[in-house]
Design goal:
Length: 327
């Protein structure tokens, strides 16, 4: 695993050394048939509703008390966090667009498990990779939208990306508080929200469309809203990867997601134990027909302040226009 260095480590202060980001390559593309299904739909059913209720209770009321006594996650995050990287050339991507470096951050889960100091070091390290665009694909908080207030200053550097930093809602962003206040608080530090919306962005003289759809479970996704202003997006933020096949049906070349935590706990070389995708879209790079999906394991943790076999990550994606055949 390589280490990103911006200068000789002998000249770095202790805090600067902690902003170095370990890097790894995302695993190769997995082509899907579109028929993969889990026997239990993680978005519906009595068992899943009970699981979601317990998640809300533990996240909002139990760990805010116990977390002050036992909270190992920030130490784990500093040891195991890495930046996964991949390059894509999706068909349907705007021709002539300069390569676009997109930093995908998901599932920060602000709250008792995450210290602001740890988050700031990670954010500063990630911004040294010089992304053109930062996308935050949901679950910024764990149990209440007010949890974001304590980390707003730490998120500010993300807005320095030339094309800005953009956010879409995840299920945890609806567990408590006011999502509209979360949107306003993010805007105050330069991070804009796309909720069933899209925007055209200019990248070196050429435009592409970024869209964001509302959470599949707790929100109210509206494809008409996403598509109405600029047509179909070239790049879609969707917290839940199970939006992927709907995005593909609408001709969207690339979808970026989180939500699954990569299973959060996995046996060595084994499947995800905690499964959040009905379509087996647990982590990494997927393809179906001509559309691509990137699912990040995300940064934070919920219910248990640990990860095993699915280390936290952000993903740096370099997207290029496909090479057209010469006739």
């Amino acid at each position: 695993m390589a280490i990103l260095l911006t200068m000789s480590t002998t000249t770095l202060s202790r805090e600067e050394r902690l902003t170095l980001v370990r890097r790894r390559q995302l695993k190769k593309l997995r082509m899907m048939t579109g028929k993969e299904r889990r026997w239990m739909n993680p978005n519906r059913g009595l068992i899943k509703r009970c699981e979601r209720f317990m998640d809300i209770v533990v996240t909002r009321f139990v760990y805010p008390v116990l977390g002050h006594v036992w909270n190992p996650y920030s130490c784990l995050l500093e040891r195991r966090f890495a930046l996964a990287e991949t390059k894509l050339a999706p068909s349907g991507w705007p021709t002539g667009l300069q390569p676009l470096r997109v930093l995908l951050i998901t599932d920060i889960h602000a709250g008792i498990f995450l210290t602001s100091e740890t988050l700031l070091r990670i954010v500063l390290g990630l911004m040294r990779t010089k992304p053109d665009l930062v996308v935050i694909c949901g679950d910024l908080v764990s149990g209440h939208t007010d949890e974001a207030i304590d980390i707003l200053d730490e998120l500010k550097p993300l807005a320095r990306a030339p094309l800005g930093a953009w956010f879409c809602f995840g299920n945890h962003d609806y567990y408590g508080g006011n999502p509209d206040e979360l949107r306003a608080n993010l805007a105050a530090v330069g991070i804009q929200t796309l909720k069933n919306e899209s925007i055209a962005l200019n990248h070196h003289g050429k435009t592409f469309v970024l869209g964001g759809i509302d959470d599949r479970i707790m929100g109210k996704p509206n494809w008409n809203g996403v598509l109405s202003r600029h047509g179909r997006p070239d790049l879609l933020m969707a917290h839940n990867p199970d939006h992927f096949y709907e995005a593909e049906a609408r001709g969207i070349p690339v979808t970026l997601s989180g939500h699954t935590h990569g299973g959060q706990i996995r046996l060595p070389n084994g499947p995800a134990i905690i499964r959040h995708s009905r379509f087996c879209l647990d982590e990494g790079l997927y393809g179906y027909r001509s559309s691509l999906l990137v699912v990040s394991r995300g940064l934070g943790s919920v219910v248990l302040p640990l990860r095993w076999g699915a280390d936290p990550e952000a993903v740096l994606i370099e997207i290029e226009s496909p090479i057209l055949p010469i006739h």
